């Protein structure tokens, strides 16, 4: 693997997409600060300064069948890293990592396409590890930072290296088997099944209520509506 460190950038994902063809598979781009970081559905991601994780993984797997599952795999990777600090988290489908019900990290996967052909993805990850309380308070949804949980500052580079090592340990397995490789581990780290939830689609204001039934073999959410009709949700915001 290779590392590219940037002082300041609008978004590590933007930079990675612009330089995708010249970057090798398994390159990790990280920045001291981001000025226009993005989350899912083009939401603003507040990344703070160099004390937090602002990174993008450039992935060019030989098997492109399971690109969508890299985000769920990364959520498990983050869980394992924070567990090494003595902190337990949970996953909110599809890939948000929560600690005490508050969001710790965001993951954004974007495909690189050329001439209608997908060549790989850039997998952006932001983790709040040293966020001041006053910045946390500015975020529009309940959020948390690892330093606030542990009451001490976290070494950014140490956390990043743990994250990278953990991710690439099973990179080949995800390429080969997709979500099935992590399914049981994923199910063990969620707690919304058999509960009433809401799903809001991209750009949607309406929230639709369902009962969450299970996660299928591809990582999609299987739900039941108020009329007893079972369907599969492929993307959207899950609201507990």
Work out the number of β strands: 12
SSE order, as H and E? EHEEHEEEEHHHHHEEEEE
CATH homologous superfamily caption of the largest domain: Bira Bifunctional Protein, Domain 2
CATH fold type of the largest domain: BirA Bifunctional Protein, domain 2
Number of continuous helical runs: 7
| Terminus-to-terminus distance | 38 Å
Radius of gyration: 17 Å
Biggest sheet character: 7 strands, mixed
| Number of self-contained structural domains | 2
Mean pLDDT: 91
Structure notes:
With 240 residues, the protein is of the alpha+beta class. It folds into two domains: 2-187, BirA Bifunctional Protein, domain 2; 196-239, Roll (SH3 type barrels). 23% of the residues lie in helices and 32% in strands. The protein has seven helices and twelve strands. The protein has helices at residues 12-18, 70-83, 133-136, 146-150, 156-169, 171-177, 183-187; strands spanning 2-9, 27-34, 53-59, 90-92, 96-99, 102-114, 117-127, 196-200, 208-215, 221-224, 230-233, 237-239. The chain has a seven-stranded mixed beta sheet with strand order 1-2-3-7-6-5-4, with helices on both faces. A five-stranded antiparallel beta sheet has the order 11-10-9-8-12, with no helix packed on it. Strand 6 and strand 7 form a beta hairpin. Helix 2 packs across helix 5 (156-169). The longest helix is centred in the N-terminal third of the chain and has 14 residues, at 70-83. The protein is globular and about 55 Å long. The N and C termini lie far apart (38 Å). The model has no long low-confidence stretch (mean pLDDT 91).
């Amino acid at each position: 693997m290779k590392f590219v460190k940037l002082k300041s950038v609008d978004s590590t994902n933007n930079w990675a997409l612009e330089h995708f063809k010249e970057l090798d598979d398994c390159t990790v781009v990280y920045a001291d600060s981001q000025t226009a970081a993005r989350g899912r559905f083009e939401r603003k991601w507040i990344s703070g300064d160099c004390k937090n994780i602002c990174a993008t993984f450039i992935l060019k797997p030989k098997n492109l069948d399971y690109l969508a599952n890299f985000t769920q795999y990364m959520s498990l990777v983050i869980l394992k890293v924070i567990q090494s600090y003595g902190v337990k988290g949970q996953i909110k489908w599809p890939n948000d990592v929560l600690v005490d019900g508050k969001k710790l990290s965001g993951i954004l996967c974007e495909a690189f396409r050329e001439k209608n052909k997908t060549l790989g993805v850039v997998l952006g990850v932001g983790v709040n590890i040293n966020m001041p309380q006053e910045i946390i308070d500015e975020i529009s949804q309940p959020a948390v930072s690892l330093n606030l949980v542990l009451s001490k500052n976290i070494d950014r580079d140490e956390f990043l290296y743990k994250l990278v090592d953990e991710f690439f340990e099973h990179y080949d397995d995800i390429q080969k088997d997709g979500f099935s490789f992590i399914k049981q581990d994923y199910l063990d780290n969620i707690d919304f099944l058999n509960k009433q939830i809401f799903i809001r689609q991209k750009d949607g204001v309406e929230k639709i209520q369902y009962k969450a039934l299970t996660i299928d073999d591809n990582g999609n959410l299987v739900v039941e509506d108020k009329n007893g009709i079972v369907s599969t949700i492929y993307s959207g915001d899950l609201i507990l």
